[in-house]
Amino acid sequence: MERRSPLELIKLKVEEFCLFSKESRLCIIAMHGRFIITQVIKGKLEVSVYALYEYYVKIVKSVPEFKLLEIRPVNNLQDLLRYLDVDKA
Predict the structure, then answer these.
(1) Within 13 Å, how many C-alpha atoms sit on residue 43's CB side?
(2) What DSSP line would sit under 12-80, residue for residue?
C-alpha cells in the first residue's frame, strides 16, 4: 500500500478553514485547491474562485495593487458566477 503524506489526508471543514489566517488560507488553497475562474470587476477587484475539498472559496484582491482583501468560502456558487457574469456554457 502506498504511503501518503499527512498533509494529503487533511480535509478541512468550512468552519475549520475560516480559523486560519489569510496567509495560511492561501497556502491551503495552493496545496489542495483547484482553480475555477478569475474575473476582474470594473477594473478594481480581481475575484478568483477555487474548489477546495467539498466547497468553493473566493479570493478578492484589489487591482492594480493586488492587495489581498478577502479569502472566504462561497455560500452560493451560482450567485457568485452570475455576479461575475460567467456563462454556463
Answers:
(1) 0
(2) --HHHHHTS-HHHHHHHHHHH-EEEEEEEETTTEEEEEEEETTEEEEEEEETTT--EEEEEE-S-HHHH
Task: Provide the grid cell at 18.
Answer: 475560516
| d(C-alpha 42, C-alpha 34), whole Å | 25
The residue-averaged pLDDT of 41-52 equals 92
- Joined together, the cell numbers standing for residue 69 give 482583501
Of 58, 53, 49, the residue nearest 11 (C-alpha): 53
C-alpha cell at 17: 478553514
Grid coordinates standing for 5? 503524506
Radius of gyration of the chain (CA): 14
- What's the whole-model pTM score? 0.79
